[in-house]
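[Discussion] Sanity-checking designs against the backbone

I'm trying to build intuition for which residues belong where. Below is a structure token string of 576 positions. I'd appreciate it if someone posts a full sequence so I can compare it with mine line by line.
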């Protein structure tokens, strides 16, 4: 038996075989080959596999009642048929002695041009599908598709590091645990692991290819992984896993119970999600709404820029399934660690301080408008909140709202129904927190993004594996900015939530409630434990000492903004 240490992201026990996840190097060989038959066979096999994948996707979409998207995948499968444009272009290159990878890359580029130059806009739009098919075939040829990388059996995945774009593609039903050599506790991959409640260890320096296929136990509680553990450890940790499952079952008793403190203060407990696949988790964990739908995962899950219709389908599905709950959809927050090839963004020295989120959207209005139109169309199917990320200035909010209004006018002219919606912004920069009074005049709600707020306030790169020791998630500067934002919001009748990871920190529940936070949006698995915490809090002592006026539940703001209200909060305790 061997034991290796790391830093745990999620408590819990994962038991099973190890699968080493290794992305192959992606280099296209330009040299000619002598065995043309073999390359043709590789090309045909890749094509058939991608056709099967596309047909399976079509079938799944059809089963879920999404006929429109099913049609897209059917069309993809057809575009790869014998003698069609792609097949012909690739085969010509293969007959010249090129490798299958080269033929797919160059052949698809040629086919893309053919579609782009067609008169009919429908066929022009098919060029994006060719790019998608090219990427899928290259993935298969390089062994870079999820099935080859992850395997087909349940396993503890061990990797150097995982990008959010890789993590979202994993088959969750096969994941028993995740171990990486790199990584940081506030990265998006860590956030995804928490949302899956997946036992996860980062910064495990000793990972090794030799582990592949070996039996192991990941012990999140003790931040370690046992390779080929002794029977005594197996028995102990299997019992602990069983106990965890029983505890989880007990939490179910909190379903349907109000999220209210002993002294009667209510707070809304919402879920953070990444797309329609998380709808069940919202319902199963009894979330009262969605406080953060990270729409960029709709983009990360797609090989090409998702069309207005594709986005509309995703937003509508979530809104419809969760109505009448409020669903806050954050506009695309691409950049920093969430990179997308098709966006063709320049490499930057400091991407976290760079061209990201609303900065991209305001610089690429056509891209932004596609999303806003999709959101407005979806608003007719539920209770929508639209939230803009990475705001630092009032003019940015005003410009976002102006473009949103242009989209609204366009759609109204087109006769499209638009429902009611709220507008909010993320407070995730010190600039926004310090100007919250000004910003509150523009919006219905604030949502504190404590992951970035901590990064920018403390000058701690949330991606850096070397800074764990310095990263103080309870730093007084961050807590002070949170309190000031809540107070500024309430002065303007703007309700304030927290959607960063700090919202789920059980040691801060009482502090946040005493500040008057209206909503906590956390990964779905944290909803019921958090409800348990809230129901155990009693703020009556604090209220007596610090502020005689109990905070009333802040309802979703429907009425127009009225005159300023006095600040609330019980900060003295924290800094006395
Ligand atoms: C945050 O910054 O706290 C947040 C919720 O957004 P993200 O983690 O996606 O950057
Ligand atoms: Mg953020």
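Best answer:
Here's mine. Compare freely.
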């Amino acid at each position: 038996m061997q034991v290796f240490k790391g830093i745990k992201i999620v408590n819990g026990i994962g038991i099973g075989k190890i699968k080493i996840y290794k992305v192959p190097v992606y280099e296209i060989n330009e040299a000619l080959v002598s065995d043309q038959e073999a390359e043709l066979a590789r090309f045909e096999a890749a094509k058939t596999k991608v056709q099967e994948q596309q047909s399976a996707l079509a079938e799944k979409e059809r089963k879920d009642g999404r006929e429109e998207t099913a049609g897209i995948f059917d069309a993809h499968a057809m575009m790869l048929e014998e003698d069609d444009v792609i097949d012909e272009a690739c085969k010509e290159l293969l007959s010249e002695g090129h490798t299958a990878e080269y033929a797919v890359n160059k052949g698809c580029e040629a086919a893309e041009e053919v579609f782009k130059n067609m008169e009919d806009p429908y066929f022009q739009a098919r060029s994006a599908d060719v790019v998608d098919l090219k990427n899928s075939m290259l993935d298969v040829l390089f062994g870079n598709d999820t099935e080859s990388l992850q395997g087909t059996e349940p396993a503890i995945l061990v990797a150097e590091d995982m990008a959010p774009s890789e993590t979202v593609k994993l088959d969750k039903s096969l994941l028993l645990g995740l171990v990486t050599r790199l990584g940081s506790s506030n990265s998006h991959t860590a956030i995804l692991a928490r949302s899956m409640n997946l036992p996860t260890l980062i910064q495990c320096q000793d990972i090794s290819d030799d582990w592949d296929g070996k039996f192991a136990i990941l012990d999140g509680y003790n931040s370690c992984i046992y390779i080929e553990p002794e029977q005594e450890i197996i028995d102990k940790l299997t019992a602990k896993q069983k106990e965890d499952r029983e505890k989880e079952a007990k939490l179910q008793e909190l379903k349907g119970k109000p999220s209210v403190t002993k002294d009667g203060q209510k707070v809304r407990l919402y879920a953070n999600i990444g797309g329609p696949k998380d709808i069940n988790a919202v319902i199963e964990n009894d979330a009262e709404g969605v406080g953060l739908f990270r729409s960029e995962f709709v983009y990360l899950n797609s090989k090409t820029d998702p069309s207005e219709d594709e986005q509309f389908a995703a937003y509508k599905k979530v809104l419809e399934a969760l109505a009448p709950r409020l669903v806050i959809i954050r506009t695309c927050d691409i950049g920093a660690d969430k990179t997308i090839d098709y966006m063709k963004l320049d490499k930057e020295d400091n991407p976290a301080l760079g061209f990201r989120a609303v900065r991209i959207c305001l610089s690429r209005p056509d891209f932004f408008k596609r999303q806003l139109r999709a959101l407005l169309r979806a608003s007719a199917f539920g209770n929508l909140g639209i939230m803009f990320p990475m705001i630092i200035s009032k003019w940015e909010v005003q410009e976002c709202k102006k473009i949103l209004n242009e989209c609204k006018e366009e759609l109204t002219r087109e006769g499209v129904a638009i429902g009611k919606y709220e507008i909010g912004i993320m407070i995730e920069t010190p600039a926004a927190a310090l100007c919250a009074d000004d910003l509150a005049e523009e919006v219905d709600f604030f949502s504190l993004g404590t992951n970035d707020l901590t990064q920018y306030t403390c000058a701690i790169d949330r991606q850096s594996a070397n800074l764990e020791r310095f990263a103080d998630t309870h730093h007084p500067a961050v807590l002070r900015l949170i309190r000031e934002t809540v107070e500024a919001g309430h002065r303007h009748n703007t309700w304030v939530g927290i959607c960063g990871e700090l919202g789920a920190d059980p040691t801060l529940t009482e502090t946040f409630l005493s500040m008057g936070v209206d909503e906590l949006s956390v990964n779905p698995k944290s909803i019921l434990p958090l409800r348990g915490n809230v129901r155990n809090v009693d703020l009556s002592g604090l209220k007596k000492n610090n502020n005689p006026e109990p905070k009333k539940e802040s309802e979703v703001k429907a009425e127009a903004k009225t005159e300023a209200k006095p600040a609330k909060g019980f900060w003295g305790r924290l800094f006395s």
